[in-house]
Task: inverse folding
């Protein structure tokens, strides 16, 4: 069955702009988590959605937001982009959430210039 | 994929040898652990997981050992192959909805 699909794979934005990233989880999975990966900070948890509800949120500013649709697809949005937001954004899909058997997509590489 | 900075620990092994990658976790309440492999240009790939009620679990060519007394996790790869070259991450979960990742170890396999 298809894996986790993230679109787009690459993005270049300028400071101050906003961006929306998309994640389609594995079919049947109801949990979607988002992570930011940077060389300096490693993999850091952004938020997790389960059945359209945000269940947990990491320590990121309010510029980072997300949502989940009834088909479990999820989007995350970053507003007022800063240079430090340049990172690989990863989405993980899980059947029941709680980090159990979480499978990752290929990520979206965001570059802010 | 994303390498984790210039200070990423590196393990170099010869093809065919066994590899052992170690991970220390911080939270004694963590009850679930996963090992991921990340190759260049790709997202983390699930390798194997283990719950805290176990101390060993085996997969295909991989074994995970959990020592809760010293909060230590290891991944053993048997007969390491060039295709095993990647960055390996351990991740822990304390029963919340997020995984906490380690900094990663780069495995280099040379012929």
Result:
């Amino acid at each position: 069955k298809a894996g986790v699909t993230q679109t787009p794979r690459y993005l270049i934005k300028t400071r101050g702009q906003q961006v929306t990233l998309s994640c389609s989880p594995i079919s049947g999975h109801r949990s979607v988590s988002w992570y930011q990966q940077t060389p300096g900070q490693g993999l850091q948890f952004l938020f997790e959605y389960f059945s359209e509800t945000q269940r947990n949120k990491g320590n990121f500013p309010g510029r980072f937001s997300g949502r989940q649709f009834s088909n479990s697809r999820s989007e995350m949005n970053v507003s007022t982009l800063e240079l430090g937001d340049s990172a690989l954004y990863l989405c993980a899909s899980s059947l029941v959430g709680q980090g159990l058997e979480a499978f990752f997509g290929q990520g979206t590489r965001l570059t802010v210039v | 994929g994303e390498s984790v900075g210039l200070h990423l620990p590196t393990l170099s092994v010869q093809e065919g040898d066994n590899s052992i990658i170690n991970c220390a976790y911080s939270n004694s309440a963590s009850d679930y652990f996963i090992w991921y492999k990340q190759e260049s240009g790709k997202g983390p790939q699930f390798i194997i997981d283990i719950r805290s009620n176990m101390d060993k679990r085996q997969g295909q060519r991989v074994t995970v050992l959990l020592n809760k007394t010293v909060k230590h996790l290891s991944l053993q790869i048997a007969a390491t192959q060039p295709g095993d070259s990647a960055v390996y991450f351990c991740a822990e979960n304390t029963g919340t909805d997020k995984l906490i990742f380690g900094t990663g170890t780069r495995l280099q396999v040379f012929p």
About this structure: Chain B is about 0% helix and 50% strand. Chain B touches chain A at residues 1-6, 32, 34, 36, 41-46, 49, 89, 91, 93, 95-104 (CB under 8 Å). Confidence is low (pLDDT under 50) at residues 1-6 of chain B. The beta strands of chain B are 10-14, 19-24, 32-38, 45-51, 56-58, 62-67, 72-77, 86-93, 100-101, 105-110.
